[in-house]
Each structure stands twice: as structure tokens, then as C-alpha cells.
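## tool: complex_structure
## caller: assistant
## args:
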Amino acid sequence: MAELIKFTIDNQDCLAEKGLYIVEAAAKNNIYIPTLCNIPGVKPRGACRICSVRVNGKLMSACTTPIADNMKIENNTPEIVEMRKIILETLFVSGNHFCPACERSGSCDLQALAYRFGILNQRFPYQFPSKSIDASHPKIMKDHDRCILCKRCIRGIKTEDGKSFFAYKKRGQTLEISIDTELTSQLTDELAIKAANLCPVGAILLKERGYNIPIGKRQYDLTPIGNEIDHLEK
Amino acid sequence: MSKPIIATTSLAGCFGCHMSILDIDERILDLIELVEFNKSPIDDIKTFTKKCDIGIIEGGCCNSENIHVLKTFRENCKILISLGECARTGGLPAMRNNKVTVKECLEEAYLNCVTVDDNPDNIIPNDEELPFILDKVYPCHEIVKIDYFLPGCAPRADLIWNALVALITGKPMDLPYEVVKYD
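## result:
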């Protein structure tokens, strides 16, 4: 049996196996730490910072930091909650997140986190960016104004020999996701569905799908994100 | 004590939020007991006849008339509520922001759109009586101070009811998970 490590989250004693990241170790103790860029089973990147916690007083991303003995982790404190709200609001204003016009609405991780944190409005001015919509691929379309640059598609969608289908192009404010032009023909239906599901927002959508789940039956309509971990609502 | 007075308006919206107000069903009878309505499409009072306590704004600002009405509401209401996605974020009308110019919008609407079939002189309405279209669609809180925000497209009737009752009675607002939605 793997070695067990003792640590505390918000002064609650926790136990988890050595080698787990804080996010995973917290989940084993029924504590939810929100994530956006993290994919279970794939090497974490710490791109979105929504999982930031205070570890022994220092801010660290919980998806990339392995647990260690006697770690004192602050997760659900007013300061951390406020910081997470600010990150979410920043993501909302920096893209064009018109939820009523998005096929992903109701099953969107970004939206679900905003619901969970009770965000009623953004405190920052809307940027209304004007990036392109790329519908050239036969199976998927990309709306770059919705992309939160979490790298989930880059890290999660790969060929059998480990090459990424997706990559970043351009720099800074114009940074966007592109599909490898040589690999693009190898994107199977299965991988296209996986890419659309992996995208935490509506930036990668399957073509010829549309609004296929009625309102009220979508993933986060009645159940908050993370509910399977901390049972916030019954 | 006299009843609190409510005013409502629809700016660059679709009246869906007002439909959602009516969607409180028979509770509208309770609402009438609790409040008095002033300027509102619900009672068709066109101008403010007295100072109001609560102003409910549907829709963002897409033209100069919207700005004028919104400022009138701010002057005449103690509390302003942005109701729905358009008031809160600009909403679907704001999808033109930074994407197409006002000129392109008007040309599409009056000249190029496939449903335009009776405009032989290629006229784009330009009478001085008409409000100016703004460079982009603005959320209400970027024009005046807004006190509360109720999201949704349209906001759930229960959310509107809970918010109004909390505001009128001074009790904490009940916000169940399933009523706060952005769509």
C-alpha cells in the first residue's frame, strides 16, 4: 500500500496517498478545489490558476503541486474565493461569452464555476474581442472569442504516437488555438467528440450538432460543478 | 407606509425579460398588493409621474434613446436593477461589438439582407427624429450606476420574484442554484 501523507485543508485533517497532486488529494477527502485547465490523468499545466490555494501561506496552483507531509492548505477562505471570482470574471470579460447564443451553455465549465461562485455580474469592463471563427474543418468549428487558452485540447487530443492535433499560434493578445494542417485529416469522429467535450467552454464545437440537450437536462442545470466531490447540493 | 413604487423599461432587449416578470403567474396579484407600478410597459404609463423606489431595466444601450431613458431612470429611481443578459452584458445585440461597423449593420438591415424586397431607392432611414445608433452596444452599468444584477435569458420568474420580495421586505434574498442561470 502506498505511503499515506497527513495534511490539512482549511484546518480539516486529511489523509492521502503520496504522489497525488493537491487537487486529487483534496477530492479523496471530499473537498472540491475548482479546476478549469486540469484534465484528470494528463500532466497538469497550471494554466488557468483557478485552483490556486495557499500552501503554508504561499499561493500555489493545486493542480501542479504534489501534497507533502504536514502541508497547511487554505482553500475556502474569503481571500481565495474572492481571487477565484476575479479570475472567472476576468475570463468572462476578456472573451465573448454570450451564454444564450452558445451551444455549450449548460454544460460549460466556466459558466458552471460562475454559477457555483454565485457571480451575478462582472466588475471589469467587457473587452468584446474580435478574433475569428474558424469553421474550415469538416468535423469541428472553433470560436476563438470563447477560447480561454487553457491548453486542454493541446494536451488531451493526441495521435497514437503522441503528437498534438492542436497548437498555439500567434502571441500575446492575439494568441489562438490552431489545428495542425498535416494531422487534421487524422482527426477521427471519436477524437472530434473528445475535443469538443474536453473544451471547458464553447470554443471547440462539433458541427451538425446544435443545441442537442433540452434546457433543464444539461450537465450543470440542476447540479453544481464539483458536486460529486463535496455534495454541495443534494 | 405607502407602497414601494416600481418602474420598468425595455431598452435594447426583446421583451423576454418582461414576459418573465409576467411569468410569476398568480403571484402578480400578490405583487400588486406589495407595490405600485409607475412608468412601465406593463401599465403603459409613458413618463414618470413621481419618484420611484425600484427601476427594472431590460436590455443594454444600442442607441441614443436607450441612453436617455436609462439616465431618466437613474434620476427617478432610488434603486436600479439590470434584468437579464442584455442589460447585464450587452447580450446578443452586443455580438456586433468590434465585429461589424454601424454602417455595415444598417446596410445589411436595409439594403443587402435577403428579406429586403421593397427598397428600390436604397434608402437607409436617417431622419433627425430617429435615435442615433451607438458605435457598440453597452451594458447598462457602463452608462449609469446599477445597484443589482439579475442574470438570465430570460431570468427565471422565481429569481425575479425572490429578488423583488427580498428588496421590498428587506429580508435576505433566496438564491437557489437552479434559478441563477446565464441562459
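## assistant note: Chain A has two domains: 4-76, 84-206. Chain A touches chain B at residues 96, 98-102, 105-106, 111, 114-115, 118, 120-122, 125-126, 128-130, 215, 221-222, 224, 233 (CB under 8 Å). Handing back to user.
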